[in-house]
Amino acid sequence: MSKCVIVFKGKQLAKELILKLREAQTPILDCNLIEPLNNKIESEDINIETSEELFFNQLNFNNIKILNPNLAQKERQKALATWLIPFGFIAGLSFSLMTDLKTFAEMGFPPQFEKLLGGLVGMVSGWLGSFFSAGGINQENDEDIRALRKKSKEGFWLLILDLPLEVELPWAILKETNCQEIITLEKE
What we know:
Layout: E1 2-8, H1 11-23, E2 30-34, E3 47-49, E4 54-59, H2 69-99, H3 103-106, H4 114-135, H5 142-153, E5 157-163, H6 171-176, E6 181-187
Parallel strand pairs: 2-4
Antiparallel strand pairs: 1-5, 1-6, 2-5, 3-4
């Protein structure tokens, strides 16, 4: 799947592009319209649709994972935590059983809880590992995201298109529209 962001001055221009893409039967996996950061959204403008199908969702810039590194980091942290926390518990429990240290008993805890507390310390270590590992990953397209945020603050509408990997952008149709800029964000 390839993602590209097309920058427009107005919402109507984005709608016209989607209509042209539908007429040309361009396969689109997902299509989201991102409102400008300074835009006050009206209740009737949340979804643009026709009688036959929903063309795209109108979303906020900060709610899109690919445009907001903090959302992507939180998702990575949750994914890492699902396996690092149990692994940390098992590793801490195993270490306590293998070494037979009396660390917690010396602190005043009952000796029968020594192994369990070792597992809990390992669990906390797993959570910390997931937190710091998720924060250490930089996105390759940070400059593109900053440029898109700046465009959004200037009042431009962003249209995010997800196309299948084997499908090229329809350049002939894009030349007919009055788009300001086209940025390719990722290819998976």
